[in-house]
């Protein structure tokens, strides 16, 4: 299970409890659906590597240039 969210509560839960579930936290401010979809597509390899890494519970994705 992997949760993708912009909600800070999921990031905090990941810090406190670890995984499961794994959390992909989108640190992208007030982005629209198209921008979020593009970010997830562009970071596909990073997301795939995160999902198979048993030691990582949190992945933070930011817009390029942030």
Q: What does this protein structure show overall?
A:
The structure is a single chain. The protein is α/β, with parallel strands linked by helices. Helix content is 44%, strand content 23%. It has a 3-stranded parallel β-sheet, with helices on both faces. The N and C termini lie far apart (27 Å). The mean pLDDT is 89.
Task: Name its key features.
single chain; 44% helix; alpha/beta; 3 strands
| Parts with pLDDT < 50 across at least 5 consecutive residues | none
Strand order of the largest sheet: 1-2-3
Summarize the biggest pleated sheet.
3 strands, parallel
Number of strands: 3
Judging from the principal axes of the Cα atoms, what is the shape?
globular
Give the C-alpha Rg. 12 Å
Helix share, percent: 40-55%
Distance between the termini: 27 Å
SS summary, helix count? 3
- Proportion of beta-strand residues: 15-25%
What structural class is derived from the secondary structure elements? alpha/beta
Could you spell the SSE succession in H and E letters? EHEHHE
Average the pLDDT over all residues and give the rounded result.
89
Question: Could you outline the blueprint of secondary structure elements for this entry?
Answer:
Blueprint: E1 2-5, H1 8-17, E2 22-27, H2 33-42, H3 44-52, E3 58-62
Parallel strand pairs: 1-2, 2-3
């Amino acid at each position: 299970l992997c949760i993708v969210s912009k909600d800070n509560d999921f990031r905090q839960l990941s810090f406190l409890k670890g995984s499961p579930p794994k959390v992909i936290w989108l640190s992208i401010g007030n982005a629209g659906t198209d921008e979020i979809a593009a970010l997830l597509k562009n970071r596909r390899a990073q997301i795939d590597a995160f999902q198979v890494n048993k030691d990582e519970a949190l992945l933070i994705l930011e817009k390029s240039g942030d």
